[in-house]
Structures are given as structure tokens and as C-alpha cells.
Amino acid sequence: MQKKETERYWNPFLETLSPQEMKRIQFKKFKRMVEWAYLNSKLYRRLYDAAGFKPGDLKRWEDIPNVPIVQKEDYRRAQAREPWPYGDSLSVPLDEITEYHQTSGTTGQPVYQADTWQDWEWWTEMWAYMLWAQGLRKSDRVFILSGYNVNMSSWASHYASEKVGCEVIPGGILNTEERLLKIKELRANVIMASPSYVFRMEDTCKNKLHMDPRELKIEKILCTGEPGANVPSTKRQIEEAWGAKVYDNAMATEVGGWGFECTSQPGGLHANEAFFLIELVDIDRGYPIQELHIPGKIVVTTFDRYAQPCIRFDTKDISMWGKPCQCGRTFRILKGGIHGRADEITKIKGVLFNPLTVEEVVLGTQELADDYFLEVKEEDSAEILVLKVEKRPGVCLDTKTLERNLARQLRLKTNLTFQIEFQEYGTLLRPEVKIQRFRDMRVNK
């Protein structure tokens, strides 16, 4: 049945379901996935047996924290076995796999992702919820910027855009200048990219094509691949530069599109609860967090994805629960989106440090370019925080004054002192997809 473009929800029933009824459905699906994985996945059977857990132990909602958490490294070890390349993570016969993708490998050996055709349909439907919530309709012409390769993002967004009725332009093979010119030529009004690549496009548009990004008349920019689009200064800067609305999304290859921002822009992400069980757990001790405004680690379970189940997967992402959104969806809100990663939050000079805090300061400083790089290292037993930044062309403020102002803001936000290094404009890495801006060089972390 053709959906009316005026409809607010892709699935009005599930998106407005009462929290009590949603929990009932989620527990039923969670239990079914645990039973499936134990019977069909050597990875999960081994993990559960080692913890002394049996699916029969799962009798009520309060038992969910007793189910062992799975880590990315568990998949890597399981996939070192036959059948290649999925090994013990596979839960269906190898000849039922129709889709291959893999993680980016930015944190080590890639994880290989197997999906059946049914799993891939599940992927597309899950993304359709997200795109519809961000206002995509038949009248939109969507330009996909990421490369069509072994990674998941471009394929998922492509097929979901088609499902909601959009016209899709696959621009992955083009370079940045060619993409911008093709967007202008074809009058695309929606683009999808990581926040860092959107900044690179803005830079190319202004300094190589000598064109204001607003001339392209982009209406919506859908961001994924890295935190940032829910950082207020990042969102504000992109929206002002392009004259477009910026929407944040959260996904992982092992999991799927588990979080999305809607057109109400509530300052956070809706947990995509029709497709996932999203938990917040204490970073150190792992107990569940239900209260608002308390940071925790995001643990995700996929429903109805059978070839390679993902049950209580440790995403390493940090967030907190927030107040309900005014859009009417009953899916819970993760306030501020992703605040950073648990494996990047660290103590420096005895102070707990979140690298994403630096982005808020750098992108909130108008005299600085959008790219930066941060590292912590040891020199003579002292911990040194080094921030590399670029000054925008044509800025009148002298570098020494800018450095003092920046150091003061960073000190206020982090309670730490930074060694600030100004690089020549255009010399810092400009990524195609996503980038790791923080590097910990200490021997004893």
C-alpha cells in the first residue's frame, strides 16, 4: 500500500506503542533470539556455556542483564574458523548468505558481516523508519556520497531511500569536486555523509570551486559514521554553512541503524526500539541505567536478524537517557546522541577526559578551521595533551591571542592544559568517510 507523504510515521502502530507494550514485545523477541543463537551459533553457545547461562534462565525482563555481553573481539576470534570467512559466528548454512559487508577496521581486524535476503530486507525496513522520520519523501532526490564498497553504509541508505520512494544518485566513485558539481547539475536536495566529510565538502566548495554551499540548495544532510552531528557547535556550523537541516544517525555494521534523529530535532537520538533492545549500562560495573541524565555505555540487541545474531553487543558508545520527544514517537531518547566512546574516555593527569569535548570547543571557535587532531603522549614521565588545529584563511586575530583564547576555553571545559600547535591551513587530514581524531600514545594507559 502506498504511504501518504503527509503521514508522520513509517509505522504508526509500533512508533507510538505504549512503553509497557513495547517492553512486552521486546522481551518476547529477545528471548527468541537468545534461544536461536544458543541452538545455531557456536560463538554464542560457547559464550553462554562459559558463563553458566542457559536460555531457560531467561524468564522475565529483569533477567536480561544476566545474559553475557558480546564484544567485537569475540566475533574476530570466532571468524578465524571455518566456514570462511564467518566461522563460528554464522547461524545459517553458508549457501543461504546473499549479502557480504564488513566493518571499517579502524579499530583492528574487520568483522565480516553475513546476511540472508530476509536479514537484508530487515535492514532496509529499519532504515526506512529513520529516513521517513527525517522527512524524506518521494519528492526528494538523494545523493549518496560514500563509496559503494565492502562497507555497509552506502548500500543500506541507498536501498532504504528507494523504499521510501526517493530518487537515488550513487555518487560514491566521484571525487569531492565531481560530487559537488554533480549535486548542482542534478539539483539533489538531500546528501548523506559523515560530519567530517561534510566539512571537507564545504572547504572544497568555497576554496576550489569558489561557490557558496548554499547555492546547491541542499535541504537535508543526514550524518552517520562518527559522533558529531548532535554536538551543538558542529550541527550549528553545518546548518549555517549549507542552509540545511542536519540529522544525526547511529549505526554499526554488526548491529544496524539503532538510533536516529527526527524532524523535531530533540537534541538526541530516538532508540529504534521496534528493531532493537537498547540498554544503557554502567561503564565500569555493567548494571542497568534507567534514570535520566546518567551517562552509560550502549548495549544493543538486534531482533529478527538471524544469519549472524548480535545479542547484547557492547558498542563502546556513551550516552544517557533523556526526556520524551515532542514528535509523538514513544521510542526513548538518548540525550545528546553519542557522547564519545568508552575506549577513548580516559584519565589524563588524574582527570577523566572525553575527546569529544574538544570538538565542541574547536568548532565553536569561528577563527579555526573544522579539522583538528588530538593526541596524548608521555615526555619525561609527564602526560602531554597536544591539539593540532588550523587557522581559517583571512582571519585577522593574531595567532598568539587565538591560542590564549582557545587554551582558556579548553581549560574551562576539560580542567586540563593543552599544548596547541597551529598547522598550515589545509595540511591536516581531510577524510572521505570518517576519521579518528584522538590518539593515545602513552605506554602505560
Description:
The chain is an alpha/beta fold. The protein has a domain at 346-440: ANL, C-terminal domain (GMP Synthetase, Chain A, domain 3, 2-Layer Sandwich). 29% of the residues lie in helices and 23% in strands. It has helices spanning 12-15, 19-40, 42-51, 72-78, 117-133, 153-163, 176-186, 195-207, 232-242, 356-363, 399-414; strands at residues 99-102, 112-115, 141-144, 167-170, 190-193, 220-223, 245-252, 256-260, 268-271, 276-281, 296-302, 313-319, 321-322, 333-335, 340-341, 346-348, 351-353, 368-379, 382-391, 419-423, 438-440. The strands form five sheets. The protein has a nine-stranded mixed β-sheet with strand order 4-3-5-6-7-8-9-14-13. It has a four-stranded antiparallel β-sheet with strand order 10-11-12-15, with helices on one face. The protein has a four-stranded mixed β-sheet with strand order 20-19-18-21. Helix 6 links the parallel strand 3 and strand 4 (167-170). The N and C termini lie far apart (56 Å). The mean pLDDT is 93.
